[in-house]
Amino acid sequence: MDPLTLGLLVAVATIVVLFSGVSVAVGLLIVSALFLLIFDGARSLEMMPEIFFADLNSFTILSIPMFIIMGAAVASTRAGADLFEALERWLTRVPGGLVVSNLGACALFAAMSGSSPATCAAIGKMGIPEMQKRGYPDTVAAGSIAAGGTLGILIPPSVTMIVYGIATETSIGRLFLAGIVPGILLTLLFMAWSIFATWRSGNTAVLSPRHYSLRERLEILPRVVPFLLVIAGVLYSMYGGIATTSETAAVGAILCLGMAIVIYRMWSPRAIWGVLRDSTKESVMILFIMAAAGVFAYMMSSLFITQSIAQWIAGLEVNRWVLMILINIFLLVAGFFLPPVAVILMTAPILMPILQAAQFDPYWFAVILTINMEIGLITPPVGLNLFVINSIAPKIPLKTILWGSAPFVGCMFLAIFILCLVPELATWLPDAVMGPG
Fold this sequence. Notes:
By secondary structure, the chain is mainly α. The chain has helices spanning 3-18, 24-40, 47-54, 63-75, 79-90, 97-113, 116-134, 138-149, 159-168, 172-200, 214-219, 221-239, 245-263, 269-302, 305-315, 320-337, 340-357, 362-377, 384-392, 398-421, 424-434. Helix 6 runs antiparallel to helix 7 (116-134), helix 8 packs antiparallel against helix 10 (172-200) and helix 10 crosses helix 18 (362-377). It starts with a helix and ends with a helix.
């Protein structure tokens, strides 16, 4: 059978299996085993266990569970609420300071936790009721938090970026740096739209400042600054050559867990066990998908599907930017249905040869891919962040949350367009800090 036709058959079979309700990892293993058995013989199945475990045999992978523990420790405390309160008190003189402080808190908490749903829940539990009480439109209150939560997979340290780095054999340190400026750009776009939407609603009273004394501003800082110092320390250790990504992640996890115990008095063994249990579950899920995706990539390569698709696309006589638009559409659709980790691991073996042939920077593309995955987090049918917001603010109808999130999807498309016009926004900082890649 022609490899391209076989590739189409694999794609259809994968979609059918994944929509049957099985987990992503199990689905990938089923499809891989089935096609290897039919088209490559029973002996090819002997390689599956070896490939499954070989893909996990990397010291760098240790950073994934460590960063997850770091995020879970922060998410299990009132750090999100304190961060929101601190920013509200310091940004109160900014027009629309409350929504600006919410989005700022989302950006900073995303950097601490690396989890989009955790960011939505932590900031939204306090931020949405407060915005409603002050008179902000429900669309702005819900949409800004849903969109702000997506920053968790872009602003470092990001588990999604780590997975991309492992899958594409690119520098995780450079990937983290590549996400900083686009993350700030996206946050500013979200803030600009939120202020405009609030002003357009006609309730300009909510844009007026609320006054806090200097004492009120200073008294909350001791509960927030230590966590921010840990993030700064993690990034400095990585880029200062002091420690590897995995070592830095391990120290960050211990420090965040220790500060959660000391600052927020999380003495209960049950609470500590809950953090470790939840972190282990999420880590195992991600590692299981990574191993299964490795087997899936082996099957695609063994049957010459990956090579044939890359050759076919490279042979198309189209402008490289037309090719990038097609890739973006493909990633966007995939992100509607699958988690970011699964999309990266399934598509990286196919896309990297194409990107190299078209001379696109892999670190710039990592940011483009991540923003596409962010869009998937606030768009149906999966739209995980939408349902998180609906669960913490049940009085806001899901339809209102959807309408409130739509303009922020537009902000993300605008960010992608800006990055295509000025790719240096993603590549300048890694080159400045670590030298040309």
